[in-house]
Design brief:
This protein has 225 residues and is an alpha/beta fold. The protein contains eight helices and ten strands. The longest helix is centred in the first third of the chain and has 20 residues.
Length: 225
C-alpha cells in the first residue's frame, strides 16, 4: 500500500499538472489504474473509426493497442508482416486518422508535454494531422519543469528504449546518455551518439490553438519508460 503522505503529495502534483494542461487548452483527466485508462479510451473512441499510434509501451501495458486492433480501423505499425514500405505507408496514413494515440516522454507540472523522437513520425503527428490526439501517461512521467523533462529522457526513457530496440546505440550499452550534462537553459535532447540515434528531434507541446484536440490521461501507476 502506498504511503498516505506520499499519496497526498502525488495528488497535489497531479492536480497542478491537470490544471495547467487545461490552461494550455488541452483536455486532461486522471484515472487510478491502467484498467481505468482502457475503459476511458473505449468510451472516447467509437468503433470503426480510423486510428493510429506512436510506439508506446504504456499503450501496450494498458491493453489499448489490442482494443484499437479489434474495434477500429487501426493503421498497425506493430504488424511484423509489413515490409519497410508498408510500415512507412501506415505511418503516413496516421496523419489522416480520426484518433492518434501515444504516451509522453514527460509531462511538466506547468502543463507542457515533452517528446523526443528518432524517426519523428510520432512528434509530427502530434503537432499536426490527426483530428484528435490522446496521450496516456503514467504518474512516473510527471516532472517539475522542462529541464527535468530533458534529464528524464537522458537518464531513463532513452536508455530503456534503446535497450528495448536492441540496435547497439551508446545508451543501450551504458545505461546513460553519452552527454548526460547539459546547460540549464538548453532544452534540447542532443543527438550526440551517432547516426542511429533515437533522439533526433524534440517537440514541446504548450498552449494549443485548437482547444481539446489533445486529451491527456494521467494514470496513477508507473507505466512505460
Amino acid at each position: 500500500m502506498k504511503d498516505p503522505n506520499k499519496a497526498k503529495t502525488e495528488r497535489m502534483m497531479v492536480k497542478r499538472t491537470l490544471k495547467n494542461l487545461e490552461l494550455n487548452r488541452m483536455a486532461a483527466c486522471y484515472v487510478e489504474t491502467k484498467e481505468d485508462a482502457l475503459k476511458l479510451v473505449r468510451q472516447i473512441i467509437p468503433d470503426g473509426v480510423k486510428t493510429a499510434s506512436g510506439g508506446s509501451q504504456t499503450l501496450v501495458q494498458c491493453g489499448i493497442i489490442d482494443f484499437l486492433k479489434e474495434h477500429t480501423k487501426y493503421f498497425d505499425r506493430y504488424d511484423k508482416t509489413l515490409s519497410p514500405e508498408g510500415r512507412k505507408q501506415n505511418e503516413r496514413e496516421a496523419y489522416f486518422a480520426d484518433f492518434y494515440l501515444t504516451s509522453a516522454n514527460a509531462l511538466t507540472e506547468h502543463g507542457e508535454i515533452y517528446q523526443v523522437d528518432g524517426a519523428s513520425n510520432r512528434i509530427s503527428a502530434l503537432a499536426y494531422g490527426p483530428d484528435k490526439v490522446i496521450i496516456v501517461a503514467g504518474i512516473n512521467k510527471i516532472v517539475p519543469n522542462l529541464r527535468a523533462a530533458v534529464e528524464r529522457v537522458k537518464r531513463h526513457a532513452a536508455p530503456a528504449n534503446a535497450i528495448r530496440l536492441a540496435s547497439g546505440r551508446f545508451c543501450e550499452n551504458t545505461g546513460v546518455c553519452i552527454s548526460p550534462c547539459f546547460d540549464e537553459n538548453d532544452l534540447m535532447c542532443h543527438a550526440d551518439c551517432g547516426d542511429d540515434t533515437i533522439c533526433c528531434n524534440t517537440l514541446i507541446m504548450k498552449k494549443q490553438r485548437i482547444k481539446d484536440r489533445i486529451t491527456v490521461i494521467i494514470v496513477g501507476e508507473e507505466l512505460g519508460y
